[in-house]
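Q: what does this look like with zinc ion bound?
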Amino acid sequence: MALLKPGKSSMEASSYRPVSLLSVSYKLLERLILNRIQPTLDKHIPIEQAGFRNNRGCVEQVLALTTLIEAEFQRILKTNVVFIDLSAAYDTVWREGLMQNFINIVPCKRMSELLNNMLVNRMFQVFMDGKKSSTGQKFQFTDDIAIAHTCKDMKEGKNTLTNDFNILERYFHKWRLRPNPDKTEVYGFHLNNKEANRELNAKLKCIKYGAPVWSNSAHTGKVDTLLNSVMRLISGVVHSTPIPWLSVFSNIAPPEIRRNEALMRLFIKTNSYKNSILYKYLENVPDIRLKSRKPPWVKARDLIQSQFCSATKWQEETGHGRCGHMMFKRKLKDSQECDCGNDSENMRHITDECPNRRFELGINGINEVTKEAFEWIKDLDIEI
Ligand SMILES: [Zn+2]
């Protein structure tokens, strides 16, 4: 299927992103092979590569890079980064060389033949408006590279980067990869820059994506406003509903709590797997000298130390859901028993069953929002 990239002309073939729908039995075979070879291959892949690997991810790589930059700020150093985008890496990579590398690691003729057959002469055909295209070749490999260099002054840093780039160019040539000049960028990260105050683009496609990296940004408020209006929309509440209650009605934790949780989870994961550059950087982060900076690792450590729990934190703000069942779940009570002797003090028990409290007409009656229901809630000794 051909999907038109946003904002591109529908008349150009290059404006389309092809998406293949593969046969399920083929995908099953691929998965069987992957499960067999992955543990062996994984030992030979450098930790810098996080793509297509278990327990690794893109956000972690971005956080590793920002951790490096942030750590160098603390050491009064600057960082130059080249972001390299390879054009059609999957199609152009030197397949024979790749297969030779594979055989060196997995010396199995049958397996390498099988893989080679999967990669050679893979054709795809695009169907559009009932018409078929001619066929082309397809091949897969991971791309997207960033190389970073720290330095005292930008000039010195640029020379080192140029040297690095020359080495990379030879590597690209060998592997038949071509950096895409339109999408390859060079950035210098330093603090004496007015650009640092540039506004965060609030038109994020997925608003929590990569949150561990930007959760300390001064611009999170703008994202929050957008998120709150979405929660208002989902829950269908009246406009005057206070912000803390939006989370309760839409059953989505408040943005900041979700960001903190994402940050904490990533750090806990990184600590338990240890096979990433993020872990390597976090092992020797410097002491905080610049009081104005709030690096994510400081925040993550605080969160882990205070045993941050998103569920508890969230409900603290509104005080809702304080029945025995929920309090027990959140480890705030030793038992979920009701004082009437029932073994669980849950919502349904309180509204419909509890001899000490129940509402005559039950939960359905409460949903009618009658004067009686209102009085019952007001007199209730539990915040639900
Ligand atoms: Zn009861």
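The two ends are 50 Å apart (CA to CA). Residues 321-379 form one domain.
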